[in-house]
Amino acid sequence: MTNADHDSSTPGTQYFEVNDIVRGGFSGLAVNAGYTLFSTTASPVYRQGRTFTSVQHRALAYDTSANKALNGTNYLDLPTKNTVTANYSGVNSPIDATTTASTSSATQDAVVNDSWVDFTLDSVYADDDGSTNAVSAFTYVQAACTANPSVITNGGAIRLRQTAQEATTMKEIILDGYSIGTP
Length: 183
Hints:
The chain has one helix at residues 65-68, and strands spanning 18-24, 31-36, 42-43, 47-49, 54-55, 88-89, 116-123, 135-136, 138-143, 150-163, 170-182. By secondary structure, the chain is mainly beta. It has one domain (18-182).
């Protein structure tokens, strides 16, 4: 992440905050997923799962270390899996550092989707909560294939998502990525 304003139409400097890296192209395949840290300023992965939906996570408040360590009211460490198949599940509005974060159980929902793996992290040049994690964790997804699998370029196979954790709104950057065509 760099010291660049991603929204020049809004006064001040808004840093794009990667809260989820979502990787697609694994339909019907068993996968192993994980991450490693290669820098002291890298954000760890807080959760990962087989879903397309990025579920917002907020701390109770962002004003003290104690409040940052607690979940906001009705925010879950592990989302439920009922009905939501959209890109996001959460409240799409900024929140002030001293405001208590609160949501409903309906915004903590993500359906299992075997084509996708979602990694939740907190990578940003300068975070509204005072932390600095300018580098993301190195994430990987492993899937079995033959010695000579076909590889295809999959439009939209990589999604970088900002999930409005603090003083931000939901945004998504969609990138092409490689997928296993025929295992």
